[in-house]
Amino acid sequence: MNFKKIGLTAFNTLIMAGLVAPIFIFAQTQIKDIPIRNQIQKGFCARFSELSLKVDQRIADRVAKLETKKNERMNNLENRRDKRDNRRIENRNKWNANRQEQYARLEARAITDAQKQAVAAFKLTTDNAITARQTAVNAAITVFRQAVDNAISNRKSAVGTAINTFKSSETSAAEKVKTACATEGVDQKAVRETFQQEMKATRDKFQNDRQAIEKLNISTFQESKKAAIDKAIQDFKTTMEKARADFKAAFKAPVATTTPTE
């Protein structure tokens, strides 16, 4: 028996086994993994309708939260305005009652016709000045509130546009997935990753747009209102200084009057 030949044959057999075995194992692994990948990929397409519904529900929930937040802001704004209006009315009523008491004291001091005429002139000038001041203050407040309301309306419109853009982008991404999933042999993992990337970009854009929209800057409106009210008060003070001077000339005595700020 040729032991050398047998040994060589055995050696060759081992070499072939060493080469073939890994290939066979790799092939088994590949064949075994294919159904798993197909199941995962098939699961994404099969479950996409459900996933899409969840996305739509999240969008609807987000829109509802934004609407609730907007209504809360408007209610708070209206409440603050009502409180300020009521406080302004109360202050004006208080100043009016105080002014009538001062008028009564001045009339009691008037003895001569010139003094009585001076009191009447002082009352008329004061009443007209107060009416002018209150009218100017009311106008400044009205202009300010209209500007704020317009800004709020513009913000509401911008939010609506951002939401519609988000919905449109989400719908477009979903349609791409449906079209891709209907294609035989498509790489569904790539489809899923593309969809996730598009949705992330869509969400990021919406968040950036929303944050920019939420920042409502009314400082310019406030400055304009303050300037108008300050002017109204200064005009009132100037008028009253002259009225007091004319009154003193007739009575030759100082007249104490208060200066309301609204």
Brief description of this entry?
The chain is mainly alpha-helical and 262 residues long. The protein is 90% helix and 0% strand.
Structure notes:
With 262 residues, the chain is mostly helical. It has one domain (48-251). Helices cover 90% and strands 0% of the residues. It has helices spanning 3-109, 113-181, 188-214, 219-251. Helix 1 (3-109) packs antiparallel against helix 2, helix 2 (113-181) packs antiparallel against helix 3 (188-214) and helix 2 (113-181) packs antiparallel against helix 4. The radius of gyration is 42 Å and the shape is rod-shaped. It starts with a helix and ends in an 11-residue tail after the last helix.
* Poorly predicted regions: 1-41
Number of strands: 0
Distance between the termini: 126 Å
Number of helices: 4
Overall SS class? mainly alpha
Major sheet, described briefly? Answer: none
- Measured by DSSP, the beta-strand proportion falls in under 5%
Overall average residue pLDDT: 81
Give, in order, the helices and strands: HHHH
CA gyration radius, whole angstroms: 42 Å
Task: Give the CA-based shape.
Answer: rod-shaped
Helix percentage range: over 70%
Total of domains:
1
Transmembrane segments: 6-27
Region (Disordered): 71-90
Keywords: Membrane, Transmembrane, Transmembrane helix
Summarize the helices and strands and which ones pair or pack:
Elements: H1 3-109, H2 113-181, H3 188-214, H4 219-251
Helix pairs in contact: 1-2, 2-3, 2-4
Keywords: Membrane, Transmembrane, Transmembrane helix
Region (Disordered): 71-90
Transmembrane segments: 6-27
